[in-house]
Structure formats: structure tokens, C-alpha cells
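User: Hey, my collaborator sent me this sequence without any context and asked if I could get a structure. I don't really work with proteins. Can you help?
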Amino acid sequence: MCIRDRVNAANKLISLDKVPVIIGPMMSGNTLAAAPIAEDNGVVLISPNATSPKVSEAGEFIFRGCSRIDMQSEALVKYAVEKYGVKKAAILYSNEPYGEGFAKLLKLYFEEYGVEVVVEESFMRGDTDFKAQLTKISGYEFDLLCVPGYLQETAPAISQARTIGITAPSLGGFGDMAPLYIELAGYAGEGHIITGEYDEDYDTPKNKAFVKKYYQYIKENPKDPNNIMFAAITYDMVYLVAEAMKEVGTDPTAIKDYLDTVSDFDGVTGKLSFDENGDVVKGGIYIFEVVDGKYVKMD
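Assistant: No problem. I've predicted the 3D structure and written it out in C-alpha cell form, which is a compact way to encode the shape of the chain:
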């Protein structure tokens, strides 16, 4: 669905269906398009996965269940510098708002950490051949290859990078944490570092039950998208809303006030609350690395 479709959907949910809460959209652009409609009508909107810093300023009724892309970018840069002693970096980014914004933030934090970005190249959504950009990049010396974008392009890009002889460690974004990334990247994905919002090994009864049910569902529905992180964040947002309705009813303002003051809600992604901007608070950002074809949380 395009942004216009998301706006139409939000209007329908509010005007015709009279919902007190909208969970979604998932992406930042769609969320920012729908947020003014929800805010103007006093309807709570919670995006599980919109990372744009602009969501923090979208209104009193607007919340999100994940960390901001600027926080993710800084955490990635800090980790890469500490682990690899990075001095020079190359960036190959997706030429759309998410990839462009992520690349700009990486450059900002690289500068703060004394890392020189020696080359930048871009690609378009839907591209499958990245060899021209990668050939240009391979003409430079660098310690880290950053590929911000969506996994449908970033995974083939890193695979082609390895094919032409680029061996520098790689760094990617929030959306790379999915089994499909590893499937598409193959051996080239080994060592890839990303941020994540969810640790499957989080040792609580609620999370253990969630993991068991999630994989049972995937086993029974193998054609459905498989991304336990996005599922876990959305699960928490749904149950937060359910708890709010249980406690205060279905009035949108009462639900907003509940979310404003909720503290240490027992979610599968952590102990949850929201700050004054509606951004989720749950104890930090995880760094994951692909090790032996699996995502492993780094300590």
C-alpha cells in the first residue's frame, strides 16, 4: 500500500469504524502520514516499528514500540569502532527516505567517533545488480562496509560485495534481522552486525510462551512472513492496548493517559513504558551479529 492508501485506511478506521486505537502503520513514512489524522481526531496511534525521529514530534496521541533510528545508528557506530577499531568506512545505501536518513546518521556519528567516510554509493529499491557501485567502492581502502536499506536489496548487495573481493566487516539496519536476510545473503552474511529490539532468549515465562507459540505458527503457516522481532514488538503493543482497555475502558483519551503513565509493563521485549514523546522505554538497544547462520546477541 502507498502512503495515500494508508491515509485513506486511517480515515476509514476513525470516521467509519470509530476505533479508539490504531496499531500501525509499520513504516515511518506511512506512520507520519497517518499520525496527523489520528492526532486531530484524538485517536491513539501506535506504530510498532517506525524509527524516524520525527515520530517523536507527531503528537500527544502518537506512540511507538521501537527505538529511534538515530539511537540505533549511534549504537552501531560505537560497537563497530570498539570491536574493529574502524578508521575508515564505506556506505552503500538505499536511495529512499529510510536508507538516506540512516546513511546521514551513520555519517554524523562516524564523524563524532573520528571515522572517515571515504566513499558513498546508492541503489534503488528493486535493484538486483550492485556490481557497478561495489566496483567503485572496492577502489577505496576502508575498515567497514555499511549497507543501510531493506533486506531485499541489502542481502544481495553484501553477497555481491563478497563475490568481488570486499572483505571488510559489514553493518546494516533494523530490517536486516530476519531469516530471509540470512537466506538471501548466504555465507556473505556472516559477521554482519545490526541493531535489534528483541532477544528470543529473554528469560521470562511470558516470552518463553510467546516463542513457542510463534514458531508453532510459522511451522503451520510456512508461507507467512517470518520475523519474530517485528512480531514480538507488535505483540507487546497489542497487549499494552488490551491492558489499557481492561483498566480504563475504550475512551481514547483515557487510553492515552494510561500509556503515558504505564511503568514496567511485562512485555516479551522487556519491561515497557513510554517517555514524554511517546517513545518506548525498555532498557537499551541490542547489537546482534550473524554467527553460523544465526543472529547472536552481543554482550
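In plain terms: The mean pLDDT is 94. You can pass these C-alpha cells on to your collaborator as they are.
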